[in-house]
TrEMBL record:
<keyword id="KW-0256">Endoplasmic reticulum</keyword>
<feature type="domain" description="PH">
    <location>
        <begin position="5"/>
        <end position="112"/>
    </location>
</feature>
<dbReference type="InterPro" id="IPR023393">
    <property type="entry name" value="START-like_dom_sf"/>
</dbReference>
<dbReference type="InterPro" id="IPR045096">
    <property type="entry name" value="EDR2-like"/>
</dbReference>
<dbReference type="InterPro" id="IPR001849">
    <property type="entry name" value="PH_domain"/>
</dbReference>
<protein>
    <recommendedName>
        <fullName>Protein ENHANCED DISEASE RESISTANCE 2-like</fullName>
    </recommendedName>
</protein>
<dbReference type="GO" id="GO:0005783">
    <property type="term" value="C:endoplasmic reticulum"/>
</dbReference>
<feature type="region of interest" description="Disordered">
    <location>
        <begin position="130"/>
        <end position="177"/>
    </location>
</feature>
<feature type="compositionally biased region" description="Polar residues">
    <location>
        <begin position="138"/>
        <end position="150"/>
    </location>
</feature>
<dbReference type="InterPro" id="IPR011993">
    <property type="entry name" value="PH-like_dom_sf"/>
</dbReference>
<dbReference type="GO" id="GO:0008289">
    <property type="term" value="F:lipid binding"/>
</dbReference>
<feature type="domain" description="START">
    <location>
        <begin position="201"/>
        <end position="363"/>
    </location>
</feature>
<dbReference type="InterPro" id="IPR002913">
    <property type="entry name" value="START_lipid-bd_dom"/>
</dbReference>
<dbReference type="InterPro" id="IPR009769">
    <property type="entry name" value="EDR2_C"/>
</dbReference>
<dbReference type="Pfam" id="PF01852">
    <property type="entry name" value="START"/>
</dbReference>
<dbReference type="Pfam" id="PF07059">
    <property type="entry name" value="EDR2_C"/>
</dbReference>
Length: 715
């Protein structure tokens, strides 16, 4: 071991795949130091050479690969790598979620410390070299084979696009984002809601200690046979991890808290966060006359940075899970659980559990007896009360191992036993991540605030300065000379178009955010959105601002400055949505000017996107979320600085989190209305309050309206 301070250590599972194709799982002793992560065959003594090491610096990332089944065990897998050397990585796993999350938080905290040193040293990072003679020692050790193939064995049989990149955070925020407070009134009272939602719920009844809500929003894009969404909200005295592990189980334990569960099995494990499941329902509504129901659905889950868990359901067809004799196949339009932490009471952890379902039970009972659907739906929602009573009657809180699901191939006989290759189901399922949290996993609440050592008083002079800043004269720009291929239409009901989104729908950091976390409406943006382009091509489209006649080139000819955001959507056909924001000139010394002229490290740490889906299905709204996302930490961003423009190429395909959200969104994009706000994050009192660069609303976009751009060769 080196002489550096040990931050955390302990036994963990070593997980991977060797070059010859055989997978392995065994215990190794991991040691995290202030600049190094290493693992050993046994607890190390002085001068013991590690099997493998990874230098930890500000460029490292912790990749959350989710749950994996390996050699009869279910493990939670983490992969740590340096983004500049992605093939040099260490993969570790745990048999319970709590232990994996402790390691994740410890490693991310070390990475955060190095990132802070980057800022303190003027973004010049001094690399660290591990000098213990480990290379020569390793070559002579009995672990030579494991070390030699360490890079290869970490490469799983899944595609690289399935790798999930998580943000580097400093722990959960003080307050919790609660998506149940979705009405505009509640949003105005809760500063955690980053964008206002127009969705409303009606309290239907209180039953078994639960509040049962019914959706009031008119959803014209859903099947007529599908009922409105309903959700149950309750409090369970248990940690989010304990509840999550029960919710994920499909064995006999589930029957102890879910009265609508008969049995279930795994159809296919798509990736660590997505699986196709088969589920038989146990419904008690006249079972003599009504056939039992079963389900085949994709289940996607994520853990948010605030410690909450989201589990989403949506029915999918699978050729290895066809109709079963004696069962009617029901259809889940959307559903799932949201498990959020609450403050402990009397020393016991508490969590709020919300269970939403929107389901069509099919069959004759739905059409002839109106009470059938609601009765069965309430029975399923009562599982929240079952969770509460399950933990209320349990004293032992030993972290259990993650349950392993029985594969459907051994549980339900099928004609096809060969490996199944999903088409549209697989493509959309592998893309289903938070999370979301697109963008809500990258909460701006997790960012360190650079508060000065001596607290700056919030004086009348500062308030006056802020008021004058807001009322500075507006310089009008002639918008008639700018054009893009996606048309602008300010009619609220128009389709396949864009319009300016109201900046007051977004909550930004106020002048006092460093002291009281308060936020305020976004207000008027700093720049004008003058055009939007919607492109497609067989390859990724980089540096689109070089295209002759585009808004960036027109702005440059007129002496204006243009900020271009190129959102690159991967797939068999690559799409790019390009936004052109224009201003007469950048204010010297402003945060925006520092962002434009700064280096990539600074840009990655400040470029923020706030998404929102005012209109769309519940599962899409929860996947996209409304939490701010630091783009440079979530995905790979490439910055091209031109004479009078800066283009930001956002490669959404570089992250499973973002790519997963798009995989879900693209399939229903014509039914969606999406809002996006761009801004530079303000961290210090001198930089606050935050100001919007601009905001846009894209309505009911059509894929066929995209055009192939004519790009000049990039010099």
């Amino acid at each position: 071991m080196s002489n550096s301070k040990v931050v955390y250590d302990g036994w963990m599972v070593r997980y991977g795949r060797r070059k010859i194709g055989r997978s392995f799982i065994h215990m190794r002793y991991f040691v995290l130091e202030s600049r190094l992560l290493a693992y050993y065959k046994r607890k190390p003594q002085d001068n013991v050479v590690p099997i493998k090491t990874l230098v930890i610096d500000g460029n490292c990332r912790v990749e959350d690969r989710g749950l994996k089944t390996q050699h009869g065990h279910m493990v939670y897998v983490l992969s740590i790598y340096n983004k500049k050397e992605k093939y040099h990585r260490i993969t570790m796993a745990a048999f319970n979620i709590q232990e994996a999350l402790i390691w994740k938080e410890k490693i991310e905290s070390v990475i955060d410390q190095h990132q802070e040193s980057l800022v303190a040293n003027g973004n010049k990072y001094q690399s660290f070299e591990y000098k213990s003679g480990m290379d020569s020692g390793r070559n002579a050790s009995s672990s030579d084979q494991e070390s030699q193939y360490s890079a290869a064995e970490d490469e799983e049989d899944s595609q690289p696009s399935l790798m999930r990149r998580t943000t580097i955070g400093n722990g959960p925020p003080e307050s919790i984002l609660d998506w149940t407070q979705e009405s505009s009134t509640l949003a105005s009272q809760n500063t955690n809601n980053q964008a206002f939602s127009r969705k409303h719920w009606r309290l239907l009844q209180c039953q078994n200690g639960l509040r049962i809500f019914e959706e009031l929003l008119e959803v014209d894009f859903l099947p007529k046979s599908c009922s409105r969404a309903m959700k149950a909200v309750g409090v369970v005295e248990a940690s989010c991890e304990e509840i999550f592990e029960l919710v994920m189980s499909m064995d006999g334990t589930r029957s102890e808290w879910d009265c609508s569960f008969q049995d279930g099995s795994l159809v296919e494990e798509v990736d660590g966060h997505t699986a196709i499941l088969y589920h038989r329902l146990q419904l008690d509504w006249f079972p003599t006359f009504v056939w039992p129901r079963d389900l085949c659905y994709v289940r996607y889950w994520r853990r948010n940075d605030d410690g909450s868990y989201v589990v989403l359901f949506c029915s999918r067809e699978h050729e290895n899970c066809g109709p079963q004799p004696g069962f009617v196949r029901a259809h889940i339009e959307s559903g799932g659980f949201n498990i959020s932490p609450l403050k402990p009471r009397n020393g016991r952890p508490r969590s709020q559990v919300q269970h939403l379902m929107q389901i069509d039970l099919k069959g004759w009972g739905v059409g002839y007896v109106s009470s059938f659907q609601q009765h069965c739906l309430l029975q399923m929602l009562n599982s929240v009360a079952g969770l509460r009573e399950y933990f209320a009657q349990t004293d032992e809180r030993i972290p259990p191992r993650i349950p392993v699901m029985v594969n459907m191939a051994s549980a339900v006989p099928t004609k096809k036993s060969q490996k199944i290759h999903l088409t549209s189901v697989h493509n959309r399922s592998q893309s289903l991540d938070n999370a979301a949290k697109m963008m809500d996993e990258y909460s701006d609440e997790d960012e360190d605030l650079q508060i000065p050592d001596e607290e700056v008083a919030y004086t009348i002079e500062q308030e006056t300065k802020r008021t004058a800043f807001e009322e500075e004269p507006v310089v009008e720009i002639d918008l008639s000379c700018f054009s893009g291929n996606l048309r602008r239409d300010d009619n609220e009901n128009s389709r396949d178009c864009w319009r300016i989104s109201d900046g007051n729908n977004f909550k930004l950091r106020s002048k006092r955010f460093c002291y009281d976390k308060s936020k305020m409406p976004g207000g008027k943006p700093l720049m004008d959105l003058v055009a939007v382009d919607w492109f497609k091509d067989t390859k990724r489209m980089d540096h689109v601002a070089r295209r002759p006649g585009c808004a960036a080139q027109v702005a440059s000819q007129k002496g204006h400055f243009c900020l271009v955001f190129n959102l690159q959507v991967p797939g068999s056909t690559n799409y790019s949505m390009v936004f052109y924001f224009v201003t007469k000139e950048l204010a010297d010394g402003s945060l925006l000017q520092r962002f434009v002229d700064g280096d990539d490290e600074f840009r990655n740490s400040r470029m923020k996107l706030i998404p929102s889906v005012p209109k769309g299905s519940w599962i899409v709204r929860q996947s996209v979320g409304s939490t701010p996302c630091l783009l440079g930490k979530a995905v790979d961003c490439n910055y091209i600085r031109g004479a009078n423009y800066l283009e930001v190429d956002v490669d959404i395909g570089s992250s499973t989190v973002a790519n997963g959200v798009l995989g879900l969104v693209v399939g229903v994009i014509t039914s969606l209305v999406v809002d996006m706000a761009f801004l530079v994050q303000a961290n210090t009192t001198d930089e606050l309050p935050e100001r919007l660069i601009g905001a846009v609303r894209v309505s009911h976009l059509e894929l066929k309206s995209a055009i192939v751009p004519k790009l000049e060769p990039d010099p």
